[in-house]
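INFO batch 0412 | record 1 of 1 | parsing
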Amino acid sequence: MKKMYTFLKILLVAIGCMLFIQPIANAADSEGNLVIVLDPGHGGSDPGAINNSLGLKESDINYKIARYTKEELEKYEGVKVYLTRYADCPSIYERGEFAKRYQADLVVSQHINSGASSASGAEVWVTQDNTQIEFYQKSKEVGEKILNKLSALGLRSHGVSTRSGQPNEWYKSGVVKDYYGIIRYPMNYDIRSILVEHCYISNNSDCRSFISTDAQIQRLGIADAQGIVEAYQLEKKNTGKQPVRFFALDKSELNLEITAGDPQPVNYVYPIFTPSNCYNQEVDYYSSNPEVLRVYWNRMRGLKEGEATITAITKNNQRIAKCKVRVTKPQVALQDIKADKTKMVLDINQKEEIHVTFTPNNASDKTLYWKSSNPDVARVWEGGVRGLKEGTSTITAISKAGGKQISCEVTVKDPNKVYVQDVNFEKQSYDIEVDEAVDIPYSCTPTNATNAEFSWTSTNPDVLRVYWNRMRGLKPGTAQIVVKTLDGTFEKRINVTVGNKKQVRVQDMQVQENYSIKVNEAVDIPYTYTPTNATNAEFSWTSTNPDVLRVYWNRMRGLKPGTAEIIVSTLDKTFEKRIKVTVGSEKEVKVQDVQVQDTYTIKVDEAIDIPYTFSPTNSTNAEFDWISTDPEKLRVYWNRMRGLKPGTAEIIIRTLDKTFEKRIKVNIVEK
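INFO prediction complete | emitting tokens
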């Protein structure tokens, strides 16, 4: 019995954790696309309403509207559009199942109305279930956007309406189900659905003005699409803007604890977007019970005991996430939590515990929700952490009471490898001036570390720019340089203060002002500048005729006979000088061979330079690409290679003009 009780306790905790760390599911497909299901009403043997005098059949018009809507919507980024029918006529139930199968975000059933010959105009039907903001209110918003677009075409708008179904049929919310099946069936699966009646086929004036030609029907289809675009704030393809693919809140369950010292406790929920650089990261927040919990943007305030749900809906794509909040009056409120460690280093398969202390120790609610930012690297269960593979992960625990949080950075290492233990700098801090560039000498220990490749970043790139181990001050301020191994297992920081200094501009450049070179001849351009302490001595080098002369910094190459000028200017555009160049014709001499070792055997993590020569030595196309045929096993930087994992690969040496190619075979073995 005791074992059973323990098992049930663990099971309940596990379920609680799953509920907490899993965000409310968005309806988006596996790639995070916005899924729109268009439902052309009727079809097949069901023609819908007919206007015999004008030879119009509703099912045909509905299908054309849907096709035009689909064509327009597919111009937008991250949108998938499906039609419920083509030549057939699925049942209303089957159309709902279709929406479920494709994980629809929105169903739009497109129709033409029929009634008295005097009836005209457009209307939209939505669900009457107003218990959750994402259904009635957001469906109404889409409907109103579509009606605005239809009104702009000249159609009279009858607004957005609801219609009740059977009084003995209810949604799980307790609201009576809707009359229209195309709304009712998707709603059974929590899928938003609307029905659009575009105009009246029984009104000859409506017909002649809006559905008598394909061009008129296309306008209706585009109007529907544009209404959806506005409601979901979509952006067209090829703009470079990334839509919201997935959305979550940093917590999905929380207790706010009312105490004598804090009668209206405050907390926050923070949005998490995928991708993190998506456009339009605006979110609307709603409370299901404002008398218990008030929400201002992402800030919540508990008002009295009870329960409420915060619903967060993104402006773009209307992605939905929720957080369940309980406002309680505990006997002993939780004030703080602390972990016994903030950093941890584990070997693969090693396990260690994170112990948490509570203040006060007798707090009524000590429930914690644990998660790993990278569960493939480190797994966590009730504070126990196990390393799974090389890398880094942040383990966090959030208290159910008050949402208090602790975190621990976990580094997982392979015990069979030698890792960087330290990076040694001549200085731990630097004071430099604006526009001053400084190299940072460094070494690492142990010297045989296999992961001694680093990234160099600035914590304040507006103040300090970093290129590998070289830094330049940009404006007065402070920053840190973060030096981190590429595998994330080691990190060290350098403090830098950038001070202001008087600007000293370049006044002149001493350089030869006329050159004559041949086609394919490459020449370096020696130069100096005055004064030598100029603070803006960074230059751009450009050719006025890049078809004749190519320039890389202060190195030029003739491409074909002709003349050009090289413009040398400071980056701040305060100084400029020009060099005249004449390119004469020359017979091309192609590379015939590259003398290089044909086969290499190297170890994983070993880096080797590849000596080579070419013939004839006066070749005019002697510039090469170095390419690995399997970059997961072998990395190549020009003529330097590094083994990554066991296997074989080839290095392709190819002239830039692709007239010569040679291959080197490389065997990579375990070290």
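INFO post-check: The domain at 508-584 is CATH 2.60.40.1080 (Immunoglobulin-like).
INFO record closed
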